[in-house]
Write a structure and sequence with these properties.
four-stranded mixed β-sheet; Macrophage Migration Inhibitory Factor; 113 residues; 4 strands; globular; 28% strand; alpha/beta
Length: 113
């Protein structure tokens, strides 16, 4: 934990390579100092079909799921850092949102093979 999922509009690959976004997200989360390096998992989900309002505007939405226990300040610092880092590679002409969510450790299940 954490699990970082970036959903984004297809076509943004013309602005940045998916591997660049993956590296950017991993680096921003590492820089937060909240997580061990080996615990960070990042996934990217491009969307062909979407709308932002009534239009097909480019977007990136990032969800950071983490075990509960971090303060609101820590989570806000994390989402701000992720947003700033992504803006550097993606530019200003799109919607970028970042959400941090707590996972309930009492009901979370995991298998590592």
């Amino acid at each position: 934990m954490p699990n970082i999922v970036a959903e984004y509009s297809q076509g943004l690959e013309d602005v940045f390579a998916p591997s660049e976004l993956l590296t950017c997200l991993y680096g921003a989360v590492m820089e937060s100092g909240l997580f061990a390096q080996k615990a960070i998992k990042v996934r990217l989900l491009p969307y062909e079909h979407y709308s932002v309002g009534a239009e097909k505007l480019p977007f990136i939405h990032i969800t950071v799921s983490m075990m509960s226990g971090r303060s609101t300040g820590q989570k806000r610092s994390l989402t701000t850092k992720v947003l700033e880092q992504v803006r550097e590679i993606a530019g200003e002409q799109l919607s970028i949102t970042v959400d941090a969510r707590d996972v309930d450790s009492e009901v979370y299940a995991k298998h590592s093979g």
